[in-house]
Protein backbone atom coordinates (compact mmCIF):
# COMPACT_ATOMS: atom_id res chain seq x y z
CA UNK A 1 0.00 0.00 0.00
CA UNK A 2 2.81 2.39 0.85
CA UNK A 3 4.59 1.67 -2.43
CA UNK A 4 1.59 2.94 -4.42
CA UNK A 5 2.46 6.49 -3.38
CA UNK A 6 5.95 6.50 -4.91
CA UNK A 7 4.82 6.99 -8.53
CA UNK A 8 2.51 9.81 -7.44
CA UNK A 9 5.45 12.11 -6.78
CA UNK A 10 6.88 11.57 -10.21
CA UNK A 11 3.69 12.89 -11.80
CA UNK A 12 4.60 16.33 -10.48
CA UNK A 13 8.28 15.92 -11.34
CA UNK A 14 7.61 15.10 -14.99
CA UNK A 15 5.21 18.03 -15.33
CA UNK A 16 7.59 20.48 -13.64
CA UNK A 17 10.58 19.41 -15.71
CA UNK A 18 8.51 19.75 -18.87
CA UNK A 19 7.17 23.19 -17.94
CA UNK A 20 10.57 24.54 -16.89
CA UNK A 21 12.31 22.87 -19.86
CA UNK A 22 14.89 21.27 -17.56
CA UNK A 23 16.65 18.19 -18.89
CA UNK A 24 17.05 14.99 -16.90
CA UNK A 25 20.31 15.12 -14.99
CA UNK A 26 22.08 13.60 -12.02
CA UNK A 27 20.60 16.35 -9.81
CA UNK A 28 17.08 15.41 -10.91
CA UNK A 29 17.72 11.77 -10.05
CA UNK A 30 19.18 12.77 -6.65
CA UNK A 31 16.03 14.83 -6.04
CA UNK A 32 13.97 11.81 -7.05
CA UNK A 33 15.71 9.66 -4.46
CA UNK A 34 15.08 12.32 -1.82
CA UNK A 35 11.47 12.56 -2.96
CA UNK A 36 10.90 8.80 -2.66
CA UNK A 37 12.09 8.85 0.95
CA UNK A 38 9.81 11.70 1.90
CA UNK A 39 6.74 10.34 0.12
CA UNK A 40 7.17 6.95 1.77
CA UNK A 41 7.55 8.66 5.14
CA UNK A 42 4.29 10.59 4.67
CA UNK A 43 2.35 7.51 3.65
CA UNK A 44 3.84 5.50 6.50
CA UNK A 45 2.47 8.09 8.94
CA UNK A 46 -1.05 7.40 7.67
CA UNK A 47 -0.82 3.63 7.34
CA UNK A 48 0.97 3.03 10.63
CA UNK A 49 -1.56 5.03 12.62
CA UNK A 50 -4.46 3.30 10.86
CA UNK A 51 -2.90 -0.07 11.77
CA UNK A 52 -2.54 1.04 15.40
CA UNK A 53 -6.21 2.01 15.48
CA UNK A 54 -7.19 -1.35 13.97
CA UNK A 55 -5.26 -3.11 16.75
CA UNK A 56 -7.23 -1.05 19.28
CA UNK A 57 -10.46 -2.46 17.89
CA UNK A 58 -11.64 0.16 15.40
CA UNK A 59 -13.25 -0.91 12.15
CA UNK A 60 -11.33 -0.45 8.93
CA UNK A 61 -13.43 2.54 7.93
CA UNK A 62 -13.08 4.25 11.32
CA UNK A 63 -9.32 3.63 11.39
CA UNK A 64 -8.78 5.04 7.90
CA UNK A 65 -10.94 8.07 8.56
CA UNK A 66 -9.41 8.87 11.94
CA UNK A 67 -5.83 8.33 10.77
CA UNK A 68 -6.45 10.83 7.99
CA UNK A 69 -7.83 13.41 10.37
CA UNK A 70 -5.17 12.92 13.05
CA UNK A 71 -2.17 12.63 10.71
CA UNK A 72 -3.25 15.37 8.29
CA UNK A 73 -1.36 18.11 10.09
CA UNK A 74 1.95 16.20 10.53
CA UNK A 75 1.95 15.17 6.86
CA UNK A 76 1.26 18.72 5.67
CA UNK A 77 3.81 20.25 8.06
CA UNK A 78 6.53 17.82 7.00
CA UNK A 79 5.88 18.50 3.33
CA UNK A 80 5.61 22.28 3.73
CA UNK A 81 8.85 22.62 5.65
CA UNK A 82 10.71 20.76 2.93
CA UNK A 83 9.00 22.62 0.10
CA UNK A 84 9.62 26.03 1.69
CA UNK A 85 13.22 25.06 2.47
CA UNK A 86 13.83 24.14 -1.17
CA UNK A 87 12.41 27.37 -2.61
CA UNK A 88 15.66 29.38 -2.20
CA UNK A 89 17.55 26.65 -4.08
CA UNK A 90 15.01 26.73 -6.88
CA UNK A 91 15.16 30.52 -7.16
CA UNK A 92 18.96 30.83 -7.05
CA UNK A 93 20.83 32.15 -10.07
CA UNK A 94 24.38 32.28 -8.72
CA UNK A 95 27.34 29.97 -9.01
CA UNK A 96 26.42 26.32 -8.75
CA UNK A 97 22.71 26.92 -9.27
CA UNK A 98 22.82 24.68 -12.34
CA UNK A 99 23.19 21.72 -9.98
CA UNK A 100 20.91 22.85 -7.17
CA UNK A 101 17.97 24.18 -9.21
CA UNK A 102 16.92 20.86 -10.85
CA UNK A 103 17.16 19.09 -7.49
CA UNK A 104 14.98 21.71 -5.83
CA UNK A 105 12.41 21.77 -8.63
CA UNK A 106 12.20 17.98 -8.46
CA UNK A 107 11.61 18.00 -4.71
CA UNK A 108 9.14 20.90 -4.72
CA UNK A 109 6.98 19.67 -7.59
CA UNK A 110 7.07 16.01 -6.64
CA UNK A 111 6.39 16.56 -2.97
CA UNK A 112 3.53 18.97 -3.62
CA UNK A 113 1.69 16.58 -5.90
CA UNK A 114 2.56 13.48 -3.88
CA UNK A 115 1.37 14.98 -0.59
CA UNK A 116 -2.05 15.90 -1.95
CA UNK A 117 -2.46 12.59 -3.75
CA UNK A 118 -1.19 10.57 -0.78
CA UNK A 119 -3.91 12.04 1.42
CA UNK A 120 -6.46 10.87 -1.15
CA UNK A 121 -5.00 7.65 -2.58
CA UNK A 122 -4.01 5.91 0.67
CA UNK A 123 -7.57 6.08 2.11
CA UNK A 124 -9.12 5.08 -1.20
CA UNK A 125 -6.78 2.10 -1.67
CA UNK A 126 -7.49 1.05 1.90
CA UNK A 127 -11.14 0.46 1.07
CA UNK A 128 -12.23 -3.13 1.33
CA UNK A 129 -13.53 -3.73 -2.18
CA UNK A 130 -15.21 -7.01 -1.22
CA UNK A 131 -17.65 -5.31 1.14
CA UNK A 132 -17.94 -2.08 -0.81
CA UNK A 133 -16.91 -0.02 2.21
CA UNK A 134 -16.57 3.61 1.13
CA UNK A 135 -14.19 6.14 2.64
CA UNK A 136 -14.63 9.90 2.43
CA UNK A 137 -11.03 10.62 1.50
CA UNK A 138 -11.12 14.30 0.56
CA UNK A 139 -12.71 15.17 3.88
CA UNK A 140 -9.06 15.05 4.93
CA UNK A 141 -8.41 17.95 2.59
CA UNK A 142 -11.76 19.57 3.39
CA UNK A 143 -12.32 20.14 -0.34
CA UNK A 144 -14.91 17.66 -1.47
CA UNK A 145 -15.88 14.04 -1.23
CA UNK A 146 -14.03 11.14 -2.80
CA UNK A 147 -16.06 8.02 -3.42
CA UNK A 148 -14.71 4.76 -4.73
CA UNK A 149 -17.50 3.18 -6.72
CA UNK A 150 -17.12 -0.52 -7.28
CA UNK A 151 -20.60 -1.28 -8.62
CA UNK A 152 -20.81 -2.75 -12.12
CA UNK A 153 -17.02 -2.69 -12.60
CA UNK A 154 -16.92 1.10 -12.45
CA UNK A 155 -14.01 2.24 -10.31
CA UNK A 156 -13.45 5.97 -10.23
CA UNK A 157 -12.82 8.96 -8.06
CA UNK A 158 -15.55 11.55 -8.16
CA UNK A 159 -15.92 14.84 -6.37
CA UNK A 160 -17.61 18.12 -7.00
CA UNK A 161 -14.50 19.16 -8.95
CA UNK A 162 -14.31 16.10 -11.20
CA UNK A 163 -17.18 15.30 -13.52
CA UNK A 164 -17.50 11.56 -13.79
CA UNK A 165 -18.89 9.81 -16.78
CA UNK A 166 -19.42 6.75 -14.60
CA UNK A 167 -22.49 8.27 -12.92
CA UNK A 168 -24.19 8.38 -16.33
CA UNK A 169 -23.06 4.82 -17.06
CA UNK A 170 -24.59 3.53 -13.81
CA UNK A 171 -27.95 5.22 -14.31
Describe this structure in words.
- The chain has 171 residues and is mostly helical.
- It contains five helices and two strands; from the N terminus they run ααααββα.
- It has helices at 6-20, 26-55, 60-91, 97-125, 166-170; strands spanning 147-148, 157-158.
- A two-stranded antiparallel sheet has the order 1-2.
Strand content: under 5%
Unreliable spans are 132-171
State the helicity in percent bands. Answer: 55-70%
**Helix-strand category:** mainly alpha
**What is the rounded distance between the termini?**
32 Å
Order of helices and strands: HHHHEEH
Q: Trace the largest sheet across and list its strands.
A: 1-2
Mean pLDDT: 75
Instruction: Please provide the count of β strands.
Output: 2
What would you call the quaternary organization?
single chain
Instruction: Indicate the overall shape.
Output: elongated
How many strands, what sense, and barrel or not for the largest sheet? 2 strands, antiparallel
Q: Over all CA atoms, what is the radius of gyration?
A: 18 Å
Helix tally? Answer: 5
Walk me through the topology.
Elements: H1 6-20, H2 26-55, H3 60-91, H4 97-125, E1 147-148, E2 157-158, H5 166-170
Features:
two-stranded antiparallel ribbon, 171 residues, 2% strand, mainly alpha, 2 strands, single chain
Short characterization:
The protein has 171 residues and is an all-alpha fold. The chain has helices spanning 6-20, 26-55, 60-91, 97-125, 166-170; strands at residues 147-148, 157-158. Helix 1 runs antiparallel to helix 2 (26-55), helix 1 (6-20) runs antiparallel to helix 4 and helix 2 runs parallel beside helix 4.
Amino acid sequence: LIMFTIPLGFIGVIDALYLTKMPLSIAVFMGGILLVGMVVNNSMLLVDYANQLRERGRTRREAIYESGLVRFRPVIMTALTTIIGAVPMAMANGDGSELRKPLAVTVIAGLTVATVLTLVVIPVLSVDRRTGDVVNGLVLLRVGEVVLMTDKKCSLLSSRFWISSCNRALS
